Amino acid sequence: MSIDRAALIAGIDRLAAAMERDFDMLNTADGALGDGDLGVTMTRGMRLVAEKAPDLPDDLGMALLQCAQAFTKSSGSSYGTLLATGLMAIAKAVKGETELSAGRVSELVAAARDQMQARGKAELGGKTVLDSLDAVASATEGLGDPEAVADAAARAAGEALDAFRDKKATIGRARIFGDKSIGMDDPGMLAMNRIVKALADRQD
């Protein structure tokens, strides 16, 4: 089984539905350590991406680029900008391709992580979405079976969220809360956990 336009559109549909479902959860988490609008960012962004989905081309690079452009039209939030940056990194890597093997997930997630890290000028270990992506890239490395990749990605995103919950945020807006951030989920990591599980078609 490979990732093609049909698989991409199916993933968009699952992700859009997940963001609608998790709207309040994400806003609440972001309200504790941020602006309280992460659910708004994700829901509005995915609505625009879902609207664009029927017109996406077979070229996965161009399709992902159009998804990134659609998402950024909905919000100027820093998280939305970072996600679009990651998508564009993947789009560049797969330009001209119409099918991708599941074995490339690790490589592509790592590319997104690195570009987002450069854009956000952040380091791994700071309790941010970068740590979620790093965990997913590591967990899926060397795997080629689609089911194994999906399981590993979903598990890694959840484990990263759990592992960093009791750490102090040292990067981004959350860092101003200092020790108060200990015991709380980073909103960006929480959102990425929901994103990965939706794309992997895995439920809690």
Describe this structure as you would to a colleague.
The chain is mainly α and 204 residues long. The chain is built from nine helices and two strands; from the N terminus they run βαααααβαααα. It has helices at residues 5-21, 23-33, 38-52, 60-72, 78-93, 105-120, 129-140, 146-165, 187-200, and strands at residues 2-3, 100-101. Strands 1-2 form a two-stranded antiparallel ribbon. The mean pLDDT is 92.
Task: Please outline the helices and strands.
Layout: E1 2-3, H1 5-21, H2 23-33, H3 38-52, H4 60-72, H5 78-93, E2 100-101, H6 105-120, H7 129-140, H8 146-165, H9 187-200
Antiparallel strand pairs: 1-2
Task: Briefly summarize what is shown.
This protein is mainly α and 204 residues long. The protein has helices at residues 5-21, 23-33, 38-52, 60-72, 78-93, 105-120, 129-140, 146-165, 187-200, and strands at 2-3, 100-101.
Q: Helical segment tally?
A: 9
Percent of sequence in beta strands: under 5%
Distance between the termini: 24 Å
Radius of gyration: 16 Å
Envelope shape:
globular
* Helix-strand string: EHHHHHEHHHH
Regions with little confidence, pLDDT below 50 for 5+ residues:
none
Task: Say what oligomer this is.
Answer: single chain
Task: Give the beta-strand count.
Answer: 2
Structural class: mainly alpha
In spatial order, strands of the major sheet run: 1-2
Helix content: 55-70%
The largest sheet, given as strand count, sense and whether it forms a barrel, is: 2 strands, antiparallel
Mean pLDDT: 92
Tag the structure with descriptive keywords.
204 residues; mainly alpha; two-stranded antiparallel sheet; 9 helices; globular
